[in-house]
Amino acid sequence: MFDQAQLRKGTLEGCILKIIDREPTYGYAIATTLRDSGFADLTEGTLYPLLLRLERKGWIAAEYRALAFTVSGYTKAQVLKKFYDELLAALEEGNSLAEFRENMNDFLEAEGYEGITPYQAENIFRTNIQTAYNVGHYKRMTEPGVKALRPYWQYDAVNDSKTRPSHLAMDGRVFMADDPIWDTWFPPNGFKCRCTVKTLSKRQMEQRGLTVETEAPRAARLEDGRFVNILPDPQFDTNPAKVRYQPDLTGYPEPLKKAYQEREKGNTPP
Fold first, then answer.
1. How many other CB atoms sit within 10 Å of the CB of residue 153?
2. Would you say 53 and 67 are in contact if contact means Cβ atoms under 8 Å apart?
3. CB of 67 within 8 A of CB of 84?
4. pTM score, two decimals?
5. Which tens digits make up the pLDDT trace of 78-104?
6. Using CA atoms, how far apart are residues 185 and 138, in angstroms rounded to an integer?
7. C-alpha closest to that of 187 among 151, 150, 154
8. Is residue 183 very low, low, confident or very high in pLDDT (cuts 50, 70, 90)?
9. Quick one: pLDDT at residue 161?
């Protein structure tokens, strides 16, 4: 008798490879495509371990260690480092949102902090997982061969009731890959932002009747008549692929700072 779980896993792996073969992409976009294709119950907790397994087999390349790291309300270096380590564990080992929250709460309570609520945990977990995969997506998009063939980048919002008005106003806009706007508007552009950026070739631009914009928009009127200012959320006006998390070690003993820096040096990919 067939093992249904293994059969489903094998089918998903094949589908993931087919999606990635079309163009560089990342976690949330893959999950959306799979759900639209019949895997309605697919969760990130199922997808990310599969991506990790495919990476270990050498079938895909993923980059996420240069993680632009976002946690509100905590500043102490070892607390932020724990958040960072737990998020990497989620990426590398497939830990779930529930495991992330449980591990963080055990640590925070031992440090004298209140634990994080389910809402806070989901905000932190999903925003940073999305950020990590956007970093890998950006690095693939900017590879010389990819950039030469697909030099046009299009902002793509989800377009549902949860999408921020300013992100809806950016939806569909096309800028050149090296336009400075991507230093401000490369997703995620807010907590739990699900926006993506697509790469397009000259032929696709012509087929779709798209034009390249050269100035960052400041405001726009949406289809429902609302007039909105076009700005990323506060603290999200950077390109996550160009920012690497570093805790503030000011005031920490020199041996501790040196030990941390040596550890990070050993963890830095070539």
1. 26
2. no
3. yes
4. 0.57
5. 666 677 677 777 666 667 778 878 888
6. 12
7. 154
8. very high
9. 86
